[in-house]
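On clarity, I found the account of how folds are encoded harder to follow than it need be. For illustration, here is how one protein appears when written out as sequence plus C-alpha cells:

:::
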Amino acid sequence: MDAVENSTSAAALRHSLLVGLCVFVACLIGTFSRLPGTLAVFWPANALLLGLLVRSPRSATVSTWFCAATAYISADLVTGGSVESALWLGASNIIGVVGGFYAFRWVCAEDRRLSSIRSVGYFVSATMVAAALTGCVGGAANVALFGGTWPDGWILWFSGNLVNYMTIVPLVLTFPSLRPEDRDPEAVSRILRLSVIPAALLALCILLRWVIGGAGAIAFAMPALVTAALLTNVFVTSLMTAISTVCTLVLTADGHLGTAVEGLSAVSVSVRIGLALLATAPLAVACVIYERRRALAALTEAVMLDDLTGALRRDEFMRKSIGAVGSLQSGLPVSVLMMDLDHFKKVNDTLGHRTGDTVLVAFADQVRRHLDDTALFARLGGEEFVVLLIDTDLDEATQIAEIIRVAQQEQSRTTLGELGPTVSIGVACSPSGDADVNSMIDCADEALYLAKKFDRNCTVSLTARS
C-alpha cells in the first residue's frame, strides 16, 4: 500500500512540475512579445494554466498551484524584472486563474468541454470572472508599479486577459485526446480534408489584413472562422481563431492596422475586447453544429439500431444486406445465420424480464465477438437474430455458428445454470452469391426450424436455392 501511495505521489509531483514548466515557457513567450515600455502584447500563460486545470480538475493540487506561482515569479525575474514587479504581476496572474477555475467548477463536465451552445454562455461567464479578478490585482499593480490609477489598471488587465482566455482556453479544453484507443484515423483524415478550405481562407484574410490595414481589418477573418465552424469541429475552429487573434494583435501592436496606442499596452482596450467578443461567434457556431451533429447521430442510431442489444433493426439489416450482396463480386459465397434462443420464455417467466433483457444483451455481445467488420448482425424481434456473412462458404459459416453456439452455452449455463438459454442456429449459403437475400433468409429459417425440431441447441446447414 505504501509503495502504491508513494508512486501516486511521485506521479502527482511530476504532473505539477510539468504544469509549472508549461506556465514558465508560456510566460517567456508572453514576455518576449513586449514592446519597449509596455506589457505583453499576447500573454498565453494564464489561459493555458486555466485550460489545463479546468480540463483536469484533479490536477489542481497545492503543489500544482505552488509550481505555477513559482513559474510566474521566476519567468519575470529571469527576464530582468524586479522582485516587487514579479510579485505584483505574479499575484495578478494567479488570482485570475484561481477565480476562473472555481467559476468553472459550477459548470458540469460536459459543458466544460464546449459541447453545446449552452456551454458557450458558461464559458464566457467564467472567463469574465477570471479576467475581472486579474484586473482587481492588476489595478493595484498599476498604482504600485507604474503610478497609474486603479480603474485604468483594472480595464487594462481585464481586457488583456479576456482576449487571451477567449482565445486559448477553448483550444485547451477541446484538444483531442492523445490516447491511441481514443483516436479515429478516418475521422482525423476527414477533418484534415475539411480544414483545407477554411485554412486557405484564413491565410487569404491575414494577407488582406497586412495589405489593406486599417481598424476594420480585425474582422476580415470572420468568414474563414465561420466556415471552419460549419465544416470542421470546435477544436479546429478554436485553433484558427487563436491564429487569427494572435496575428491581429501583432499587426495592431506594430501599428500596421492603425490602431496602436501609447502607454502600458501597445493594443487598445477596445481592440482587445473587440477581438475577445469576435472570438465567441465562430465558437458559438461550432458548438451549435457539434450539438446538431450529435443529435442527428443519436437519431440515426435510434432508427438503425435495436435499443436493447445495439444490433441492426430488421429494415436496416435488409437494406444493408441487399446493398452488400448486390455489390458483391460474382462467384463469391454468401451465408446467413438465423439464431433463436432456446426456452427464452422460461427465463422471462421464472427470473423476470430484466434478467431476460440481460441475457439478450449478453448474447448479442457474444455474437459480435465472433464476427468481423464485414458481417451484418441484426435482431429480428424477441429472441431471434440474424447474421449475413460475406465471402463465407457453408463450411466456414457452420464453423462460426458452432463457435457461437458453444460460447453461448458455456456463458449462459455459467451465469444462470440450467435456466440459461442455449441457441439453435440455422445456416444457409449461396455458394456463388447469386441467391437473393430473402431466399437465403427463408432457407436459413427452414434450417432453424429443423434445428429446433432436432431437440434444439444445435446447428443445421442448408444450401440456398438460386
